[in-house]
Description:
The complex is a heterodimer. Chain A is an alpha/beta fold. Chain A has one domain: 2-Layer Sandwich (Transcription Regulator spoIIAA), CATH 3.30.750.24. Chain A has four helices and six strands. Chain A has helices at about 30-45, 65-80, 95-100, 100-105, and strands at about 1-5, 10-15, 20-25, 50-60, 85-90, 110-114. In chain A, strands 1-2-3-4-5-6 form a six-stranded mixed beta sheet. In chain A, helix 1 (about 30-45) packs parallel to helix 2. The longest helix of chain A is centred in the first third of the chain and has 17 residues, at about 30-45. The mean pLDDT of chain A is about 95. Chain B starts with a strand and ends with a strand. Chain B has helices at about 30-50, 60-85, 115-130, 135-150, 160-165, and strands at about 5, 20-25, 95-100, 105-115, 170-180, 185-194. In chain B, helix 4 crosses helix 5. The model of chain B has no long low-confidence stretch (mean pLDDT about 90). Chain B has a single domain, classed as 2-Layer Sandwich (Heat Shock Protein 90). A six-stranded antiparallel beta sheet of chain B has the order 1-5-6-4-3-2, covered by helices on one side. In chain B, about 30% of the residues are buried. Chain B is α+β, with helices and mostly antiparallel strands. Chain B is built from five helices and six strands.
Amino acid sequence: MEIKTETYEINYDESTMTICFEGSLRLSGMDEYTPIVELLRGIAEKTPPHITLNLRELKFLNSSGINVLSKFTIEVRKNKAIAMTVQGAKNVPWQGKSLKNLQRLMPALELEWE
Amino acid sequence: MIVEIFGNFIENLPESPEYLILGFSPSSVPLQQRWRNNGLSADFLADYLTTFFPAKEDDPDTQYKQEEIKGAVSYIANELLENAMKFNNDCTNYPIGLSLHLQSDRLIFMITNSIASNTVQSFQHYLDKLTNADTQEMLITQLEENALEERGNSSRLGYLTMIEDYGAKLGWKFETVEKDPTIVTVTTMVQLNI
């Protein structure tokens, strides 16, 4: 499963249960984010035992995008059968600032820094 | 002229030796088409500013500082522009202006846009709440509330993330700049220690 545009790319590798985000996500409001929300929801609904969310190549994210990741984290939190690891990069400034909020929403979430 | 201040707003900002101003005429291009410009403008401001925070090859601290400032400017300027474009009163031709001022100890962003008179009250009510709340708690509550909403076009996370994640101080000034027809503007000021 993937979404590919000029500015960003999201793909899910079912064999490794890894979702990779790349590029820059600054879409306008929640409506434009709907396809991404649906892709993420589809993955959570399959209840894989573990999800790795690799954000290391996601250079920019606006607050609506932060909202999308938070929504997904809360959805995963509700399903106790799924464990989640978020992979971030300290050299991508927004990640050092904002990824900790995902852990506040889901304390069992593992944050892996590069 | 009616003026109302909320939060941490400095009136009569001392002139800074270095500043940049970007102006947008809101009605010239539809919102969707100019959305991309927000990110471009924010990245331009961030890139431009790195000149003042040179990274030295043999000093990782300076490289880190430069990246950190660049990231913060790009995030904050983009959020301010997105808000201004979204809530601007396009019935007026009042321009949107974003300025960035460099001072010795901080960066100051100021963005001015017009807003519809009938939205002023609810906006001010929100600012009252924001400026008096525990913002860390408010951010988490907002994230939880947003997760329950199926749609809802406003995430209300822009200001909260600037305060909580970037340690910024925020203030707002409302002015009625014209009467008959009434034009109300709001100037948002963001102060970021450097």
